[in-house]
Amino acid sequence: MNDDVVTIKNRLGNRVVIPAHHYELDEVVDMADFLGDSYKLAVDCSKTRAEYIVFGGVSFMAEGAALLAGSDQKVLIPDPQAGCPMAQMITGEGAKAVYETLSARCDRQIIPIVYMNSHADMKAFCGAHDGTVCTSSNASKIVKRFLDEDKSVFFSPDFNLGINTANDLGIPGHEVVTVRRDGTLEGADPSSARIFLWDGFCHVHKTFTLDDISRLRSSHPDIQIIVHPECEEAVVTASDYAGSTAMIYNTVKDAAPGTVWGIGTEYRFVARMANTFSDKTIIPLRESICHDMSRITLEKLTVSLASVESFIKDKGPLIHPVTVPESLKKDAKKALQRMIDIVEAS
Fold first, then answer.
1. What average pLDDT does range 224-246 have in this prediction?
2. Keyword Calcium: yes or no (predicted)?
């Protein structure tokens, strides 16, 4: 199967590109033209001129690539059922209703910021209301941008990334409101709140606990703990470092040989780092797997590539092309591009 992918890729040449997320299966990562976290993949996909982008990631990532693609480019996903439970925890329609309620009660203008782990309708909602997208690698920078303009922020869908970002920026708890999924508000007075946090979560990162950290510190006294900011607030506070997938990778890569690392993020990514950086001891806080990423397999990737080849020869349709409704495209792309502009400008 590996040989099939390589053979088809060689025949297609630079007409096709395969981006893959760090959480993908090794067999998919091995076939990738570029590898990264969600921000890097968004930027790389916006720059490629390949006619066909076969995305090794979950559906919201492929949607993002489709939003940034040119009119002459087509995006495919090997399995459209590869989703993200957190992205399902809020919709554009639901966010609009909440936003209107919050705006009526807050003294400041509220800027909606949606995590990349969201669908096109959420990105379009943000774009239509002067908001933007963010990723875990740039959330603090983007939230700070609007707080510095004396605006409040409605952050969704991941509560943990939101509260950990607020802590990173020194925002006190009495200026933070939690927005429950039933619309209930908890915490600060909405009229003076600076950050409103939706209460979604990532099941992969929510599993890590303080006991996991204590266990590793007991067995490895010199261990350094690094976790993803989608982890619970207490877990992030108890860790030595917290950051995006790219930050975790680069921190471990640049660490001195012989150092010991306990890592709280998706297990396949941690296991791959342990193999890559064998001069260090790398231990997962626990084995927590993104099963949606697991849906993208080498076999399905082969089918996608074969469909591109057949399509070019007018011998069949593309299998699982990714499209975004025209009604969402303009505003969703605006929100994505605004993120890239803010980050790349600095």
1. 97
2. no
